[in-house]
Amino acid sequence: MGGLKRMYRGRTDIDFPKVFRKVLVVSAVLMVVSIVSFFTRALNLSIDFEGGAAWEIPSKTLTTSQATDVLTGFKLADGSKVQEARDSGGNRIIKVQADTKSVTTSRQVAEKFAETAKLKVDDIATNTVGPSWGSEITKQAGISLVVFLVIIAIYITILLEWAMAAAALIAVAHD
Residue 67: left (phi > 0), alpha (psi -120 to 50), or beta? Predict the structure, then answer.
């Protein structure tokens, strides 16, 4: 009988108390590494959370370096993201994200992209998101997470007991 079938039927020879300490040490080390990397590398949030502008330039000739040069002219190249992609129809698109919250600056950058790529300004999709909207979304996501965890804890407590609810929440935090 295969290993998965034995596990499914509850016929395993794993001595869990014997491997408990080793697994606990590995788990603790992985958690510490995860927490340290979270605070040292931080999260790479999109413009939806931080605010900024995004442009999609449908061009066969515009290069990513030319797009970066346009951003450099507006002093927006630092921290920007420029990538080449394809849409569902197979058309080439240059996607650009930069840290500008000004709609006027965003429009000027779009005009420069259009000039560089020899396109009409209306061909370039522009999206500008303010930082207040992003912080509001982040706040609401945090509130939703806390409410969800409280509801789950109450449900498990009613269904089973409080110790199991606490263990389940610790497992969720661990994962």
Answer: alpha
